[in-house]
Amino acid sequence: MIDASFTFPVENQIKLVEERMLSQADGHHSAVVAALHHLLSSGGKRIRVVVTLLTGKMLGADSGKLITLAAAIESLHTATLVHDDLIDGALIRRGIPTLNAQWSPAATVLTGDFIFSKAAKLAADTGSVDVMRIFAETLATIVNGEITQLFSSRWVANREDYYSRIYAKTASLFEASTRTAAILSNASEDVSLAVKRYGYEIGMAFQIIDDIFDFTSEQTTMGKPVASDLRQGLITLPVLYYLENQPDDLDMKNILESNFCDEDCLGRLLKSIRESGAIEMSFKEAQKSVHSGLDALMKLPDSQERKALEELACYIIDREI
Amino acid sequence: MIDASFTFPVENQIKLVEERMLSQADGHHSAVVAALHHLLSSGGKRIRVVVTLLTGKMLGADSGKLITLAAAIESLHTATLVHDDLIDGALIRRGIPTLNAQWSPAATVLTGDFIFSKAAKLAADTGSVDVMRIFAETLATIVNGEITQLFSSRWVANREDYYSRIYAKTASLFEASTRTAAILSNASEDVSLAVKRYGYEIGMAFQIIDDIFDFTSEQTTMGKPVASDLRQGLITLPVLYYLENQPDDLDMKNILESNFCDEDCLGRLLKSIRESGAIEMSFKEAQKSVHSGLDALMKLPDSQERKALEELACYIIDREI
After folding, report:
1. Chain A residue whose CA is closest to B152
2. Which of A83, A114, A123 sits opposite B140 (nearest CB)?
3. What is the C-alpha radius of gyration for chain A, rounded to an integer number of angstroms?
4. Which of A249, A235, A24, A121 is nearest to B137 (CA)?
5. DSSP string for residues in B235-304
């Protein structure tokens, strides 16, 4: 959980959301119970939970339904992570062994499926068909994004592709969090659009910052090698800026032609990107997103929750890994 | 599709359901489109579609919503098959290569997830929160059943375990088909309970017959070896009857003690089971289930659709592989 002042207005509810998620395993096989406990104890930031709770509380949603919704959103997120880690063969997430590091692929696939089913159940428990629909559409967006990434050529330097990818991967669920919280609050269309925009913008910023961390962090911090995206031929915002400013970089030219980059080339490129100002430009773009999100938020009346959402938006760009 | 007279009242709708399922890939990655086409062209029996359509039509459900519901049910079924085949490493289903025979595990997991998301979307599109809830609960039941099977000891001879397993694996979705069709029809509680019972009973019978086929079919027919359940240490109804009547069978005694059965032992056992009358007793039990289902159905007024559902129930026990 995040140790930040903006969680204060919903501190108690966050615990209730976690309890609600855990209780989904009740009456099911002990392996499922163990898996859910393991996943929830791995200390995710619960940032989607906080966004959902703050938005709903700000707009006057029923507190019980809001907790159900936040549990649905976080469960959906957790289920996608379980399948992602399996697909990537990731053995560590947030410093804790992933499910697939300990279990067979079969058990990991099924545990992900189980959490999907419980996410859908929780979404249905909000009693809103619109929430359900957005929920299902968001899952389709996330998975379609992953399939697209899986089947796409590597080393494609294209801004449009990049924005679609980070929308599918991250911003779509932030957007769904605020949209569905607005639905539960019977918010007006203007208000719904404002919080939807806020969710979208902070989601885009969140992923841009994650992509920056991939260049700035050291190997051990994130549990994966530095420039892991680049190693996979996945071009993110810092590389796009670098390419736009250094279109004649020989290493990049070679890579885009040969679709290959050895360790020496990667080392040189990493150094060049870090020194080029591309990281700073990417950071400015994330800041711009956050400011757009804040502009949308400012259309709503001042409140303790709105203030917390402002702080949360700033935290997204100021956070440490 | 089934070539049987009971599909007649809903013939046109079955095609619309298939079109509806295919259209779920619209606007998504071409790999997803290809996968859905492949899965739907593999000629499943669509028996759940027919059950859903006939029940809803009999009870007066809105035709458009009913098609959406049937597409949701069949999509859920398809998604679980995609993940099942991956987990079992099955390369052939219904005589056609499975998705995982051609694709990587990653692509197969994600395609299953995509179809889950579209199943949830279709369920939401029925506009009924109750449908959504049953839908999500059924998915949880199915997946929990698979997890239980995965983590359970082999060679467990226990009727209760067997019935739970076949309920989770098969009957739960048949039951959900008729229950949700009744919900869309605003059926009375009595009527809902009657069709729920019908769905449950024909679902149980369907799986018992499948388990019988595993003993009576030849290797090539089902694309898997004869007695494939027994080979995996999975005890089904014919074995349970055999054990109850021949508690002193030496091969079975050895197996239950050692949890192991070599090819010779398997051959002897298969012959013994086939000759023991256990197959016939299992078949009678399936018949009994179907009769209970028909009893429940008889509480409803006579109609073309009710007649078709009667025929369908009989088809389940009389069908060939």
Report:
1. A29
2. A114
3. 20
4. A121
5. --HHHHHHHHH-TT-HHHHHHHHHS---HHHHHHHHHHHHHTTHHHHHHHHHHHHHHHHHHHHTTSPP-H
Minimum Cα–Cα distance from A82: chain B residue: B109
Q: pLDDT digits over B151-171, tens only?
A: 887 888 899 999 999 999 999
pLDDT tens digits, B72-84? 999 999 999 999 9
Shortest Cα distance, chain A CAs vs residue B39, angstroms? 17
What is the C-alpha to C-alpha distance for residues A154 and A142, in angstroms, rounded to an integer?
19
Cβ contact A28–B83 (<8 Å)? no
pLDDT band at B44 (very low <50, low <70, confident <90, very high): confident
Over the range A239-249, which residues count as b (16 or more CB within 10 Å of their CB) and which as e?
Answer: bbbbbeebeeb
Q: How far apart are CA B145 and CA A119, in angstroms?
A: 18
* ipTM, 2 dp: 0.91
Predicted pLDDT at A40: 85
Environment class of residue B271 by beta-carbon count within 10 Å: exposed (0-12), middle (13-18) or buried (19+)?
exposed
Is residue A163 within 8 A of residue A37, CB to CB? The reply is no
10 Å Cβ neighbour count for B57? 21
SS3 call for A130: helix
**What letter represents residue A287's amino acid?**
Q
The identity of residue B83, as a single letter, is H
pLDDT at B137: 96
Q: B146 to chain A, minimum CA–CA distance in Å?
A: 7
- In whole angstroms, give the CA distance from residue A199 to residue A180: 11
CA distance A136 to A133: 5
User: Do residue B124 and residue A143 have CB atoms under 8 angstroms apart?
Assistant: no
Distance CA B96, CA B85 (A): 12
Pick from A86, A127, A147: which is nearest to B129 by CB? A127
CA B214 vs CA A48, B279, B287: distances in Å: 47, 11, 18
Residue A112 near residue B146 (C-beta atoms within 8 A): no
Q: From the first residue on, what is the mean pLDDT of each consecutive set of 10 residues in chain A (321 residues)?
A: 82 95 91 87 86 98 98 97 88 80 88 95 96 96 93 86 97 98 98 98 97 82 72 92 91 83 88 94 97 98 97 90 57
A5-318 carries CATH number 1.10.600.10? yes
User: What amino acid is encoded at A3 in this protein?
Assistant: D
pLDDT at A301: 97
